[in-house]
Amino acid sequence: MNLNTDSHQDIADKLSKLDEKDEIKPLEIIGRTAVYVFYSSYKHVRQLTRFGNLAYSSKKARYALLYVNTDELEQILPALDKLHFVKQVKVSELDNLNLDFAAAFQETVSDNQKIAEA
């Protein structure tokens, strides 16, 4: 007994319709920036989720790590500063760092060779 009710022609029609559809668009990666928010009271931390993704919060150290869209960062920072429980807001400097370590590695190797020759 065949449970599949689709005939070969029906399957071919479905495949042709799939080919006619628009191409699948590539995934666009949205720039994210880490923002460290230092607060006075832990009980208000849940409010930070309105501004971005709350990745981590520490009760003892009283800070939270929040990931925010980079293009919205200019509007979000003043809004975070205005919250009554926020003491300080710091933006991660990772975006500004040069992450190409090849030049630094070559520099280290040449320094080690100079020391070995001396």
Concise synopsis of the structure shown:
Helix content is 33%, strand content 23%.
What keywords describe this structure?
single chain; alpha+beta; Alpha-Beta Plaits; four-stranded antiparallel β-sheet; 3 helices; 23% strand; UPF0298 protein YdgE; cytoplasm; DUF2129
Secondary structural class:
alpha+beta
Strand order of the largest sheet: 2-3-1-4
Report how far apart the termini are.
85 Å
Q: Roughly what is the average pLDDT, rounded to an integer?
A: 85
Order of helices and strands: HEEEHEH
For the sheet with most strands, the description reads: 4 strands, antiparallel
Task: Predict the CATH topology of the domain at 32-94.
Answer: Alpha-Beta Plaits
Strand content: 15-25%
Number of helices: 3
Question: Which CATH class of the domain at 32-94?
Answer: Alpha Beta
Q: Label the overall shape.
A: flat
Low-confidence stretches: none
Number of strands: 4
Proportion in helices: 25-40%
CATH superfamily of the domain at 32-94: Lrp/AsnC effector binding domain/regulation of amino acid metabolism (RAM) domain
Q: What's the CATH architecture of the domain at 32-94? A: 2-Layer Sandwich
Pfam family, one: DUF2129
Protein name: UPF0298 protein YdgE
InterPro entries: DUF2129
Keywords: Cytoplasm
Report on the architecture of this protein.
There is one protein chain. The protein has a domain of 63 residues: Alpha-Beta Plaits, CATH 3.30.70.920. The chain is built from three helices and four strands. It is of the alpha+beta class and 118 residues long. The model has no long low-confidence stretch (mean pLDDT 85). A hairpin with a 4-residue loop joins strand 2 and strand 3. It has a four-stranded antiparallel β-sheet, covered by helices on one side.
